[in-house]
Amino acid sequence: MEPSDSLAEQARRKQDLALSLDRDRAALVIAHPFVGFLAMHLDIVPVFDHRVPTAGTDGHRIYANPDFFDTLGPGEREFVLAHEVWHCALRHIERRGDREPELWNVAIDLEVNRLLVDEGMTPPHDVLLDDLQTNAEERYDRLEFERATLPHRIEAFEEERQEQRRQHEARIEAGESEFYSHYADNGSEDGYYDEYGSHHERPTDVAVNERGRLADTHIEGALAPHEADEPTDRPTDPDFQPRGDRIGEEVWARRIQIAAQQVELRGGTIPGHLRWEIEKLRRPKVDWREVLRQFVTRRIGGERRWLPPARRSLHRGLYLPSRAGELLCLTVALDTSASCVDFAPTLFGELDGIVRAFGRYEIELILCDAEIQSVEQYGPQRPLQAATLAPAGGGGTSFVPVFDHYAGQPPPDALVYLTDGYGTVPDTAPPYPVLWAILDRWHEERRRGTAPFDPLGSFRTMCDWGQVVAIPVDS
Q: What's the rounded Cα separation, in Å, for the pair 180 and 189?
């Protein structure tokens, strides 16, 4: 805001910006309908306020500073609007938890900016941007690691810079090439060129650096009474009234579902780089324990059936109908990766509690990696929870041997497969129900930078049969 701006001039500029941003939002609906439909749920409030130097959101409104928006072109304004919308849809304020705010602000800006650039939108110059295809939590972990290791990385940088300079000078003295003279002369305290001409920048703490032109405000609560009334020589605006209440996750999930439906009804498609993010937000949270209970108890009924036959008659050569409620024959298959073995006792405890309520049951426990390692029988006298796991082997995972195991012999009533989701899946579904219990190591793997964006969706690209439930590692 210019000091000479009168209150009337401020009001006019705010009104002009409100009209301009309404047009930009309408343009978003046409050019980028998914985020455009979501933007319709947020009020746009122009403000001249030092607490919003560019733009910001409290989850209910988008605040926009006219001084900043006057420097942007139409495509850049749409980018900033979409940026604030995604902060709300991804519930970045709620997801921060106890993370350090400065680093978290950088992480969530990187997440949103990458989404929008991949969608073909035009960012303002000098915005934070990286090449990662991950979420804010993983980016935060990386930033935290970079901050913790910064002194060591600077020390290593200085040692390598001095070594490269010595090598350059030695080559120049030897008259090898003017090439080295060029790169030696262009080295500085902030970077150096290696022998291949690649430039290496001095390591810095990204959170300390400028966040670029779009250093927006992530508002985590309403103004405190003293903050609202506190005199200051910096500009404040009475229209800046952030709300302290939070919109529930289920509300944004419903909005996302409706926006996706609107796009699909109009014959549009959701961009591939957004599809997994949208599916994750659309998908309701499910208690894996309840899914497991329903899956097993559905196998208990009262009617007679011919498939599978009554097992107690087969040894006499009699093929008789079985009663679904008289004996539960369940197979539990375990992927012997370390995380699954560690989690197995939790799953076994849940299953024990379910099957014991039905009295008579047989559980066949199969341990398998690339091939079956062991097959053990459990029942009321030898409960599954007492199983001692000592898997051997290693080196690849295939789910196929477990299903091949039942070729030519009576199949189970149902099969529960605990796995991390990485392995070879049979092409066709077996003639009995299967529950894939996918161990969701999302946060653990993101710290290592090796996780897919959505473990459940990733598994579904490989296997289109059976029931699937995700089990968070902190269950």
A: 18
Which is nearest to 292 in space by CA: 357, 347, 221, 214?
A: 347
8 A C-beta contact, residue 59 and residue 247: yes
The Cα 94–Cα 405 span in angstroms is 47
DSSP string, 388-442: PP-----S--BSHHHHHTTTTSPPPSEEEEEE-S-SB--SS--SS-EEEEEEE-H
Q: Which domains does the chain have, with CATH numbers?
A: 7-128+209-276 (no CATH), 288-472 (3.40.50)
Residue 475 to residues 294, 338, 445, 470: CA-CA distances in angstroms?
Answer: 18, 16, 16, 10
What amino acid is encoded at 26 in this protein?
Answer: A
Residue (of 78, 403, 82, 38) closest to 251 by Cα position: 38
* Range with lowest mean pLDDT among 159-173, 334-348, 369-383, 421-435: 159-173
Amino acid at 82: A
- CA nearest neighbour of 55 among 76, 38, 29: 76
414-419 β-sheet, strand order: 372-378, 361-368, 328-335, 414-419, 434-440, 467-472
Q: Tens of pLDDT along 10-21?
A: 999 999 999 999
Mean pLDDT of 282-298: 77
Q: 411: cis peptide before it, omega within 30°?
A: no
Instruction: Tell me the C-alpha to C-alpha distance, in Å, between residue 157 and each of 17, 181, 188, 200, 470.
Output: 47, 21, 12, 9, 43
CA distance 289 to 291: 5
Cβ neighbors of 348 (< 8 A, separation 6 or more) are: 332, 384, 385, 387
- CB atoms closer than 10 angstroms to residue 329: 19
- Tell the burial category of 340 from Cβ atoms under 10 Å away from its Cβ (0-12, 13-18, 19+): buried
Taking the C-alpha atoms of residue 30 and residue 431, their distance in angstroms, rounded to an integer, is 47
What burial letters (b/e) apply to 369-394, b meaning 16+ CB within 10 Å?
bbebbeeeebeeeebbeebebebeee
Q: What share of the chain is helix, strand, coil (3-state, %, to 5)?
A: 45, 15, 40
- Nearest-angstrom CA–CA distance, 85 and 91: 10
Residue matched to tokens 């997994």: 276
Q: Flag whether pLDDT at 45 surpasses 90.
A: yes
- Alpha helix locations (H) across 178-286? 178-185, 225-229, 249-265, 272-282
